[in-house]
Amino acid sequence: MLRTISLLNRLMHRHNGVSKHRRLWSSAAEGAVAPPADRSLTAEQAVRLWAQHFTLHGISEPLLSSQYIISHVLGEKTLERVQRKRLRDTLTDGERERVWELCSKRLTRMPVQYVIEEWDFRDLTLKMKPPVFIPRPETEELVSQVLEDLRLISHRTDLRCLEVGCGSGAISLSLLRSIPQLRVFALDRSQTAVCLTRENANRLGLQGRLDVYHLDVIKDADAILSKCDPVDFLVSNPPYLLSQNMETLQTEILRFEDHSALDGGLDGLSVIRPILALSSKLLTQRGRIYLEVAPCHPPVIEQLIKEMRLGLLYLETRCDFTNRPRFCVLLKKGEDD
Ligand SMILES: C[S@@+](CC[C@H](N)C(=O)[O-])C[C@H]1O[C@@H](n2cnc3c(N)ncnc32)[C@H](O)[C@@H]1O
To answer: What number of CA atoms fall less than 13 Å from residue 61's CA on the CB side?
Structure first.
């Protein structure tokens, strides 16, 4: 930390003088922060400088933010993957300008994933674009659980799945990548999300087994039923936050991510209810539903399917890596159930 501050001070006095320095670090609201006149800045120095500056401005995860952005500019995903020598080389003018441009975006509280326009989900690198929801690590667990269960029916030559609320395509594309005999129908109420899922599918060469529709599970049930063939399983990470909890979200999320990707209404179930109703019509016998939900939801959903009499069975609740009950697995009853 001390070294960072002294580096910052040195740059400030050696090249710009105090008043210029203040302009250099002008507030993000004034627009992009201009790159320094200093032409001898190394990547290592830039990382420390920006981590310090992010800290001063109350940006969350200041060091990680700086590291991700600068490694991205150097063509790598993490700083560990950048060659040591490269870290100690002086940044080119173009690199320095790009670092300043991207770090200035982070100063506006834009999430790093949107700043660098990509993020890894399991073994995929996905393009990210605001305001499409940024995939979270819990959802990687959801995908692992689905894949683990599907091993039991891996002998099937044709498997079909529906994903409700595909966002960037993280879940659907991971499943398609891992299961060669799978065909996926994915839908989202956001046109931007639909386009991003298609773009990610094309980049990954997975578009041949994916149909993506701009449809709303609340309003377009009939259209979904007419477009989508019966499926062996349905997976969804729907909006599930209770509306009253939306204001507790980080500034990064509130300012940049689509609120309708997060807000599940008064009880957090406004999208989950129609998903359950749709599942009972679309699933094949003994087909499964995998849902990512809020920790308060599993017992409520268990009760709900009894009340809704949809022909669904509540199989189990699974926990995430922090041991919170976050995943519900349900089953469409077969003739023998
Ligand atoms: C929490 S995000 C999940 C995105 C992605 N599946 C993931 O895990 O990264 C929820 C997604 O559901 C979509 N969505 C919200 N309400 C919907 C509705 N009524 N019908 C269809 N999609 C909806 C949002 O646009 C958003 O992309």
So the answer is: 14
